[in-house]
Design goal:
The complex is a heterodimer of chains A (509) and B (425). Chain A is an alpha/beta fold. Chain A has one domain. Chain A is built from 13 helices and 23 strands. Chain A has a ten-stranded mixed beta sheet with strand order 4-3-7-9-11-13-16-19-21-23. In chain A, a hairpin with a 2-residue loop joins strand 3 and strand 4. In chain A, 57% of the residues are buried. Chain B has 425 residues and is an alpha/beta fold. Chain B has one domain. Chain B is built from eight helices and 19 strands. In chain B, the strands form two sheets. Chain B has a ten-stranded mixed beta sheet, covered by helices on one side. In chain B, helix 1 runs antiparallel to helix 2. Classes of the chains: A alpha/beta (509), B alpha/beta (425).
Chain lengths: 509, 425
């Protein structure tokens, strides 16, 4: 989520004919640079620097975990020691020293777990408030006021290594929905966690997922029982605050038969000169007729113009559509991070299941993004759709990497992929690396990709209507991204639009 | 590490089984190529660039066997075209079946042992350039160990096409041919190639197209069901030059055709196309790498595959636009028609772009024959088989239309019709 900037536009600008109000708001929102780069001064308790079995034990102990969980972590850690960091992505970054990081950081005031949000350190609450994430239940997210019926969004707020609090828990409980920190779920619902944790992204899946399996400290757990339509949108907001600290969160979402949930994820971090590591895992299990929407606005600190600082973001996200007619929709807006390595995937196992992936990836200055999706069609009559919009500016490199595979038994399946890249300036790069594997003939696979620059005619049109160049570019880019922006829940769409403009700041001229 | 060692060992074993000691002008280039090969090793299935094709039978030191194909009374390809024929039998030049090469200004690699030769500036040079960013070890092996080949230098417009004919007469033949073609400024040549070549055929064609020159290349790879081939085309294009290459592949247990094209002069045009038809034990891989290193160049890749009874089609295509290669127009299409449940299409169409004022696109589709179109034709009284054949030819038409010479295109179409008639279920 982040800051939804409220503008009192009409007072300041005369709305010109042919330019709608929303456009001006968007462009206005470009005012600041990275908005979430401030730091909360709060006393923090760290685990010793570096990574070894003792650190894994310490994290497990801090979370008050049962023995089986510790064993699970240790098995992952031992496995990780034998693995090599993948280097196939089109990303160029110096060797990461895994011993030169803190793997656990927790605000001291969280020492005794607060029983309710009222007991949470006001400094932490203020932090989230400043980010535009109210942790009080009577407050609603900015930007959605004025809707006929005020929409509620339940929030789980993760600060460095711990979950600060979860809102609307009681109301959700009435509907049978479990929404809590994963550390809490391990203690309170061990059978559910045991059954599903690692069942979509196994411990040995890849270097970063295995690291996460060993050291994840917190994250969110969502369980939607059979036939329940989650009464409100769920959201997790990740904030990295402490210096030299990696964040390793783990999210597990289980949607039972016929259920539905829409889940939002947001992330920010302060400006720092050194790189910080973020390696998350998200697992989603979707049973018969259930549907999950997962939307992300990734706005980690991207580093400065010269590429100094910024988050290294290595994320494994996967949804397993186990049941027939199940459905998953990934929507992501990737504007932050110095390095993005992320491929939210769909395993379409159930017959007639559906996977969708909508992505906007913006890389400016020295940012590098290698992101895309995997659509693995295993069941009959499965459908998938990929719409990816990559925007490169400055000296940034932006790669779409994707896999579509039609298993021999996935008969009568369909895939449609569209990847478009937009280049702004002649120092950046835009790349497309799709893998297409078709192993039966009744399925249809279509892939299209284009690369182009911002259209001069469109720019000229905007300029001739009195916009300056940056405004014009932001408007054209928002138009380029429209298909994806429309797939976002409303409160995200507005923020994403203004983020698009901010991320491109300084890319013109 | 163990994998790399195995690759290096395989390269040593292969080199040891071949005669790589050569004297004369090409000796230094061959030695360099052997050094390159020793550094990279031979490919293995685990290599990303060989993800969809198992190179084992192309790399083993021991010869592989392939039964001979009887074409019956079918007329040889390009028979009606006035051309200079140069025949290689299992990789060995046969003067008795060939026209006199000197009339067309062609020299034979095996015969030219002088110390200084124009081809010295090209032999292995474009191949070496083509080794980055992706290694092509089979091409380095070829440069090091080629036994035969033709050296063609063209000034002006060549009188008639040169036709290289590769006959396969021995079940165990293992042929390595390396051709060098140099088109001087404003020159024009059509090169025809046909025939399987050998049980296992490794061929490299290096083409230097100078400013304003035009090169047309049409080949058909022979229909021996069990033959294997690894071929490479390395081309460098000067300003305002034209390069057009079309390949027809029907049958063959394993074919890997690589085309590595570099557009180095402004306003150059490069088109590379392929039509592949496979039935049963057929694995066909088109791997293309086009580098745009100059302004206002155009490149097109058009690859179509028709597959049945478990045949596998692979396409790996890449357009690389270097910084400064503004106004590039790059297009790439790879499509497959799967005629039954068992066939597969595996594709990796890539774009890598470092210039902003470009227009690049690629498309890739895979699917069965269009039932609606089939129904339409049948409702107009066209018998099922004929209707299918018509739709298959229509599907391949975009690739064949890359052949400029209508007589040659007609020959290729006739070949395809013949194949479809024979492989009718």
């Amino acid at each position: 989520m982040g800051n939804v900037v409220e503008l009192d536009v009409e007072d300041q600008i005369e709305v010109r004919e042919g330019v709608d109000r929303e456009t001006i708001e968007t462009v206005q929102a470009m005012a600041g640079k990275y908005k979430h780069g401030w730091e909360t001064e709060i006393e923090t308790e760290y685990a010793p620097k570096g990574l070894n079995e003792d650190i894994v034990r310490l994290i497990s102990d801090k979370n008050g975990e049962p023995e089986w969980m510790l064993e699970w972590r240790l098995a992952a850690y031992r496995r990780w020691l034998t693995m090599e960091e993948p280097r196939w992505a089109m990303l160029n970054y110096p060797e990461i020293d895994y011993q030169d990081q803190y793997y656990y950081a927790k605000p001291k005031s969280m020492g005794a777990k607060p029983k309710s949000l009222d007991e949470v350190d006001p400094k932490l609450l203020a932090t989230y408030e400043k980010l535009g994430i109210p942790l009080k239940e009577q407050m609603l997210l900015a930007g959605v006021e004025g809707a006929d019926e005020p929409r509620k969004v339940a929030v789980d707020a993760v600060f460095d290594s711990v979950s600060v609090g979860t809102t609307f828990k009681e109301e959700l409980k009435k509907a049978g929905v479990i929404f809590c920190a994963i550390s809490e779920a391990i203690r309170e619902y061990p059978e559910l966690v045991k059954k599903y944790l690692g069942s979509v992204v196994p411990q040995s899946d890849n270097f970063f997922a295995t690291l996460n399996s060993a050291v994840f400290s917190d994250g969110s757990f969502v369980y939607i029982p059979e036939g329940v339509r989650c009464p409100m949108e769920l959201s997790t907001y990740f904030r990295i605050n402490a210096e030299n600290t990696g964040q390793f969160e783990r999210t597990l979402i289980v949607a039972e038969k016929g259920s539905y949930v829409s889940y939002l994820e947001g992330c920010t971090a302060p400006k720092r000169d050194t790189h910080q590591l973020h390696a998350a895992v998200v697992e989603i299990v979707i049973l018969e007729d259930a549907e999950v929407k997962y939307s992300t606005v990734q706005n980690w600190y991207p580093g400065d113009e010269e590429g100094k600082g910024g988050i290294y973001n290595f994320v494994t996200k996967r949804a397993d559509c186990r049941g027939a007619r199940s459905k998953v929709m990934w929507t992501q807006v990737e504007t932050g991070s110095a390095i993005t390595w992320k491929y939210p995937s769909c395993i379409l196992r159930g017959d007639d299941s559906q996977g969708e992936f909508y992505s906007i990836a913006i890389a400016n200055n020295a940012q590098q993004a290698d992101t895309g999706t995997k659509m693995i069609h295993l069941g009959k009559n499965t459908k998938s759709r990929i719409v990816s919009k990559g925007i490169s500016a400055g000296r940034a490199q932006n790669t779409y990497r994707g896999l579509v595979t039609m298993h021999p038994k996935a008969t009568n399946s369909r895939n449609y992929t569209q990847c478009d890249s937009l280049l702004i300036g002649d120092k950046c790069g835009a790349h497309t690396v799709p893998y297409i594997e078709v192993k039966n003939n009744s399925s249809r696979v279509e892939h299209e990709a284009t690369t182009s620059k911002v259209d001069d005619d469109q720019l000229f049109y905007c300029r001739s209507r009195g916009m300056d160049e940056e405004e014009a570019v932001a408007l054209v880019v928002n138009g380029f991204c429209k298909e994806v922006l429309q797939a976002l829940p409303m409160e995200f769409a507005m923020e994403a639009q203004s983020l698009v403009a901010i991320s491109l700041e300084g890319s013109v001229g | 590490m163990a994998v790399l060692q195995a690759k290096l060992d395989a390269a040593e074993a292969r080199l040891a089984a071949l005669d790589v000691a050569h004297a004369g002008w090409s000796a230094a280039a061959r030695k360099d190529a052997a050094t390159r090969l020793r550094a990279m090793g031979l490919p293995v299935k685990r290599d990303e660039y060989w993800r969809y094709t198992d190179p084992t039978s192309l790399t083993v030191a021991a010869p592989v066997t392939a039964a001979l194909f009887d074409a019956g009374d079918e007329a040889p390809l390009f028979n009606g075209i006035d051309r200079v024929r140069l025949v290689f039998v299992d990789g060995v030049f046969d003067p008795t079946q060939s026209d006199d090469p000197t009339t067309a200004g062609v020299e034979l690699l095996s015969a030219s042992t002088a110390d200084i030769h124009w081809a010295q500036g090209l032999y292995g040079v474009l191949e070496a350039r083509g080794q980055t960013p992706v290694a092509r070890p089979l091409a380095a092996l070829n440069t090091a160990a080629a036994t035969e080949g033709v050296l063609i230098r063209v000034t002006g417009k060549a009188d008639k096409p040169i036709n290289l004919i590769y006959l396969h007469k021995s079940e165990h033949s293992d042929a390595i041919l390396h051709h060098v073609v140099k088109l001087e400024e404003g020159a024009e040549l059509t090169l025809l190639e046909n025939g399987p070549g050998a049980a296992r055929f490794n061929k490299v064609l290096e083409v230097d197209v100078a400013d304003g020159a035009r090169f047309h290349h049409i080949r058909a790879q022979g229909r021996d069901h069990e033959r294997r081939a690894a071929t490479h085309i390395f081309a460098r294009l000067g300003a305002k030059s034209l390069f057009k290459s079309f390949t027809l592949t029907a049958n063959g247990v394993l074919t890997r055709n690589e085309a590595v094209l570099e557009l180095t002069g402004d306003d150059a045009v490069a088109h590379v196309a392929g039509a592949a038809v496979g039935d049963g034990n057929f694995h066909h891989d088109d791997t293309v790498f086009v580098t745009h290193a100059a302004e206002r160049c155009e490149s097109r890749q058009v690859f179509k595959k028709v597959l049945k009874n478990g045949a596998v089609g692979v396409f790996q295509g890449k357009i690389l636009v270097k910084p400064g290669a503004q106004k590039t127009d790059g297009y790439q299409i790879s499509q497959s028609l799967l005629l039954d449940e068992d066939s597969q299409f595996l594709a990796k169409p890539e774009l890598e772009i470092y210039a902003d004022d470009v227009k690049c696109s690629h498309g890739s589709t895979s699917g069965a024959i269009d039932e609606t179109a089939l129904y339409y034709l049948r409702s107009r009284g066209v018998p099922l088989r004929q209707a299918q054949s018509l739709l298959v030819l229509a599907f391949l038409a975009e690739a064949i239309s890359e052949i400029e010479d209508e007589a040659i295109a007609e020959d290729i179409r006739a070949r395809l019709e013949g194949w479809l008639a024979r492989h009718d279920r």
